[in-house]
Amino acid sequence: MKTINIVLGALLLIFGGLFFINDWQKVIGALFFAGGIFSISTDLILASNNQDDRNIKLRAGHTSYLISVVYIFIIVLLFQSGILNDPINGFALILLGVILAFPISMLYYRNEQ
């Protein structure tokens, strides 16, 4: 199952790169790329399923939820102040932040132990 997830993550990285390079849909390409990074990083960081890894997943989930709520609040403030004008780019920023918050917090808690 781990190899299937890594292959799917690699395919998401490839398709995201193709979408982003060929100017088809930069927002979708960036989201595919972030999804590929998320898939590969979660499989490589936490390969086993022991109690320590479960605690890391639990702590990383709580931290990424908190980061996501603060990040969405900041993006809404940027919309209200007029710094961000395009709602699609703001929505893509929100999705990228939410998708990448979990692997970043997992790396932090994994290195902390």
TrEMBL record:
Q: Which residues cross the membrane?
A: 5-21, 27-46, 66-84, 90-109
State the UniProt keywords alphabetically: Membrane, Transmembrane, Transmembrane helix
Q: Does the keyword Transmembrane apply?
A: yes
For this entry, the protein name equals: Uncharacterized protein
List the lineage, top down. Answer: Bacteria, Bacillati, Bacillota, Bacilli, Bacillales
